[in-house]
């Protein structure tokens, strides 16, 4: 891992609303394992965001939405880790991203994402399309699909699979390299 003089501020967003989900554990692992170069803030309000309402986007967005957008804006980079539900993104993850569409908070924002699920292929493609559409800056190595996650992440957040561990290392290095 390269030595970085200043820690990079990363906003980590889990697409799962379940506490201590595999996705949250992966984000916590990254925050702990890369603490020498990253300051990871786990966003814990995804389930507090109201249903997306286009009427509220510009005139009077709820305070929680404004706070969410400000956290994205203030971060050096964004790290998303989400499961796949019924061959798609969880509704909470899609909803959160919809609240950013009318803004430029993701425009050229260094972003990395992990889809960690039983399969995850459909959610991976969907998230890639959405983040590309909102102009997030995603390097090729800043995307990771972890299939069969239950066998690769232990209940305390340990990564039990060397290929997964290597994939996470590659993703983190790629995200760091994309931050100017």
TrEMBL record:
One of its GO terms (cellular component) is cytosol. Pfam families: FMN_red (PF03358). This is FMN reductase. InterPro entries: Flavoprotein-like_sf, FMN_Rdtase-like_dom, NAD(P)H-dep_reductase. It comes from the Bacteria. Residues 9-141 form the NADPH-dependent FMN reductase-like domain. It comes from Salmonirosea aquatica. SUPFAM superfamilies: Flavoproteins. One of its GO terms (molecular function) is oxidoreductase activity. Gene3D superfamilies: 3.40.50.360.
